[in-house]
Input
Amino acid sequence: MSDFSPALKEGNRDPRVACALLLDTSYSMSGEPIRQLNEGYKTFCDEVNEDPLARKRTEVTVITFGDRAQVAVPFQEGRDLQPVEFSPSGATPMGAALELGLDQLETRKQAYKEAGLEYYRPWLIVITDGAPTDAHAAPARRVRETEARKGVVVFAIGVNDADLGVLAQLSDARKPAMLEGLRFKELFQWLSASMGAVSRSVPGTSDAEVAQHEDEMTPLPTPQDWMHL
Amino acid sequence: MRAGAPLGWRAVGGSVAGLLHVRDERGCDDAHGWRLADGQAIVAVADGAGSRPGTSALGAHVAVEAVLGVTGDAGFRRRFADHPAPAVAALFEAALAAVETAAASLGVDPGLLATTLCVAVIGETDVVVGQIGDGIAAVERPDGAAQAVAVADRFEYANETVFLTTPQALTDHLKVHHVPAEDVRGLALTTDGLRYKVLDDVTGGVLYQQFYADTWQWARGGEAASAAIEGFLASVDDQTGDDKTLVVLVRGFDGEVAEPVRLSPRPEVTYGIGTGATHD
Output
């Protein structure tokens, strides 16, 4: 038997999954909530970086909404993520954050296309402890419509006194989840593990049958450690 | 030389579990098989859906097994000679029926046995390649160039594909490529686990010519053997961690045929047996 060692293509780049984290940093998050949020985000950065595939396939942007909706962390690969101390202030301009998040994801997808990169369905994560203080109906509808076109996976997560009725407007596929207490760390651990699961998913996860069951596009870790049941 | 080799074709190949499947203590969800007999060469590769661990490997296996079973029937040779492309399309119907039967015997939804399937049949005058899913089928043209055939539909997202069990898969997504046998010197089928290493452009599906040139040249050598392909598959850093399958067919080779018939091992089913589990 002779060894088989054909020439292999080198340089094909890994597929990407873009993740937009929309974090409520309004004044009501002051104190322990923002501290736990920052700790949770640090855990997220560490654990994504430790996952061999997620660290190079996941690209994360963080959009905070407090004084205003802004890109606090521009898109970067998981391996480049660094902890950030988010500071609470201002109101809850969630509508603007939703628009900004979708714009960022669309721009990123376009960049992938132009770069010849394959990519997974992007994720939009919204975490808030209140209710929007700006116009949010149209942005929420845009999120739902994008989701319906299979353009984004949406997770809406409420903290403390969050208005779940508003969060429910963000997705027809998935009900909003309520954080148990301030278990941000467990939430972000779940998120990093989920990013890892998506990064490892290979063709074979979305035939027409599965498409009817949004939750099953890729088997994700169970959220029971952080979700209020 | 070529003793016992129908049409003078040799086949070598293998399937190995990907690194992530090994890490997660899952088996190989890919399957492959071939039959070189009765004046025909038939080869099939299948990739069980990664999202259905524990059962999709069986779907891949029974799909390949069904193809080999049908082509072992005396009537198939005549049907293929008369109507090559429809005869190959009928193999996909048989494979789907086998998957559905296997699912019924387990008491599970056929979707849990979701698998892709790529089949090539080489007859005396015709070569037909059929595909549902995202395998990569390449033929070696007389000038030595590799040509991608039966190319699957591509979707927007990297983890999307179509399975044998997808509704209307046979009518809407079966790709069939038909070419005169004299225009084919070699053939190679792979599942998607190798795509980052055998494609020059993954989004465009452009073949990496040097890989195929090396592969066909090696397969014509006197010492080509399936064990060497398995060794290669086990060691290659494929960037995906996915299961990998490569089956190579060539004519004009040195030495013996080696393996006129092969079917990868039947996998152990580890989920859903007798539970009545369904896909939701």
Remarks:
- The two ends of chain B are 55 Å apart (CA to CA).
- Chain B has a mean pLDDT of 88.
